[in-house]
Fold these 3 entries.
Entry 1:
Amino acid sequence: MIYPQKINSKKSNKIFYSLVIGSITIAIILIIINKLTTPQIHWAALANCGILYSWITVMYSIKKGTNVAGHVLIQIILVSIVMLYTDTTIGYKGWSVYIGIPIALIVANITMVILTAISYEKYIKYAIYQLMIVILSLMPIVLIIKNIIEMTFLIRTAIDISVISLVISLVFCYKDIKEAIIRKLHM
């Protein structure tokens, strides 16, 4: 194949608008869940800031044509460390492990899915970062097995979204990944 395949603008716009509508729907659902379950703790605001962050990152990446996946990975690690440090400093209430870090991992996974969907031709640039974020998202499983933390709704959601985002990324790029493997392994 001499010329790379381009995704047509109608398909790209459909994906983009469906992701925007999905983000808005998730934000509204989070607000409703927050108001019904724990109105005194405004965790939905943190999650919605994360969704906004995802879109700012995606828009920056699209306009500048840069690979921000590495920055997303570094930021997720730094944000998790800062949240854990802050939680520990104020007497470890557990909010960082049970609320903050899972929300940050969810945001990172969704950001990577959006980046992959919008610019799937650069899948190989995002693949290693997607895999590293998935590994970070699955680390709570080890902590749960060792009885260091317990499974909560947000931790389970972060793990599920991590696996789903990896599958979605692989589905978007299946043909390209297959071609790359065939080329590299000379099959």
Note: Residues 9-37 form the longest helix (29 residues).
Entry 2:
Amino acid sequence: MMIDQDVSRLYAPRRFNRVTKQRFARVRRTELARHLGRQLSYPEKIIIGRIIAIEWELRRLDAKLDAGEDLSGNALRARLAAETRLRLDLTALGMAPAAAKPL
């Protein structure tokens, strides 16, 4: 199955297994590299790998919450820490957050 590069929506898995994780990683890696618009350096490849892993876990935990499961306190703290790490990694790649709209 070919992935259209002009699709505005990114791939979001409905099930969390080995196959969907590989597809998710491939699509995310391609999109992040396309966004940077240049050949990736070795440290950038490491950061992108970490971004993909963190985003996968966040989506997996979100799916559990959407299904009505309760997360333990440790899982909730890990989720908050992962969000912070994701934000810092994206900033390290030069993807600054959008400016806040004036009130």
Note: Residues 20 and 82 are 21 Å apart (CA to CA).
Entry 3:
Amino acid sequence: MTMINAGILDERLAVYKHVNEQSQLGEITYEWTLFKSYWADVRQVSTRKLLEANREIDDTIITAMIRYTDSVRVGDRMKWHDRLYDISNVEYNKKDGYIILSCEVCTE
């Protein structure tokens, strides 16, 4: 297995998992919980401006390459530069020791 050069992993990001928690009253709440932080190579793929409810919003798509793990999945969230992103695709490359996360800015 070849490894990626650590020098290109120069950005810090955090991955969050969606967990169900039960309150003392028995209510189920859905919380985003910090799972783990990773060093990454983050690239902005595209940015576009959208009009939604008479206000302009940015729709940014980025990719992030991190060392191989099978713990990060579609549906998790990523935080980078104080912005939350939904992980919409994960490309696993175990042979070369990395995965690529495709992410879109969270809308909720």
Note: The beta strands are 11-22, 28-52, 55-67, 77-80, 83-93, 98-105.
